[in-house]
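Give me the 3D structure for L-ascorbate peroxidase.
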Amino acid sequence: MELTNIPHLASSSNFFFSSCSRCSCRGRRTEKAVIAVSVAGIRCGADSACSEITEQQNLDSLPGSKNSRCYRRRDFAAAALIPFLLPRVDMASAAESYDASIIQNGARNVLSKVKAAGVLRLVFHDAGTFDVAEKSGGMNGSIIYEVDRPENAGLSKSLKILQKAKEGIDQIQKVSWADLIAVAGAEAVALCGGPEIPVRLGRLDSSIADPVGKLPEETLDAVALKTSFRNKGFSTQEMVVLSGAHTIGGKGFGNPNVFDNSYFKVLLEKPRPTSSGMPIGLPTDWALTEDDECLRWINIYAEDQAKFFADFQDAYTKLVNSGASWRTA
Ligand code: HEM
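Predicted structure for L-ascorbate peroxidase (329 residues):
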């Protein structure tokens, strides 16, 4: 049986709609995806044998939202379990057609400026395990198995936020954790006024945790930081520009909800500033100022926000593609 169905995103609204081959279908969906949809319990009302999504749905009515309808909770809970029940390749290659705007809107619906920093940090903690030489780690969604590690303290909150988005998106088309985190991080940056970063889709999720000890500790000096980033394939310039992510969040660099070049400006202040008597930033942030090569980039980005945005966009793109395995279909 050839089933056909691609969910469409209505332009200029959050409405998703689709129909099935027995009704008035658009596009195609593989058997695997249909199985997943079927497990989620959403079937064509016109034909009980058909496993297509048929309802118009606004993301507000999808799981996790305050408007979710009770009778659907069980279905959504089942859908949330799917990623853990099916092999990773099946999940990631399930949808032949992949609508980026569905993922983007799903992420946007759960994000706010206050939540943006945690979500952006999630990107680094998933991708930053990459080790070029060992060909291990990287942007593979393995962070879901690593939240109990000390370096990931506080990140389960951000993951739960994205879990809500994932449950909703998965009802329409399967999304890997790696793709969702990459897209959500870019959305977080844009939401706070940073650059709009296009994100390539199609990452496969790992089914196991990455090796431990790959993320840089906050006590490292500049030399050790450079080595840590070089092992992930990043130059000193890329390390400095990515560190500019600390401009948002609770580390005291300017407005916590505004993605701008305050991070670099504050690093150049003398004497070293404090915020309400508390030190600003991490030891690693200040370590950058003690290295000539890093300092040169700090000066450049402090003077030129447009250059910071452009270089951040490139480095972010490289970060979210680090060590990724891609769908071939
Ligand atoms: C240079 C090496 C890095 C180290 C040692 C480091 C470490 C840390 C630590 C310890 C925190 C504080 C967590 C907390 O408040 O509990 C933090 C916050 C954060 N990190 Fe990093 N980080 C690094 C690089 C990066 C990169 C490359 C990114 C993203 C591209 C990033 C994004 C963030 C964000 C957005 C926050 C704020 C989170 C919040 O306030 O909720 N970090 N980082």
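Residues 155-172 form the longest helix (18 residues). Let me know if you want a second pass.
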